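Exercise 7. Given the encoded structure of a 78-residue chain, write a plausible sequence.
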């Protein structure tokens, strides 16, 4: 692993951590409607009834890991 690859891994880890600390929130209504509440601090949701949209959070993480993995492989020494 070279210095550029290490920097990519650090950047990916920082972004994934930031996504964990500021997750997407949603509000589920009794009729089955789901209202997105945006992104916010993990420990202080804008609405006490809001929950973390885990599906969207995992999709974001997968996207970052794919892009980070591609960047890691592209920066490989030849």
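Solution.
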């Amino acid at each position: 692993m070279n210095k550029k690859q290490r920097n990519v891994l650090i950047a990916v880890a920082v972004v994934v951590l930031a996504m964990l600390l500021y997750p997407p929130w949603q509000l589920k209504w009794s009729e089955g409607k789901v209202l997105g509440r945006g992104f916010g601090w993990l420990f202080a949701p804008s609405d006490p009834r809001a929950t973390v949209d885990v599906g969207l959070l995992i999709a974001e993480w997968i996207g970052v890991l794919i892009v980070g993995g591609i960047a890691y492989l592209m920066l490989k020494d030849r």
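Remark. Strands lie at 24-28, 34-39, 51-52. Students should compare their own answers with the one above.
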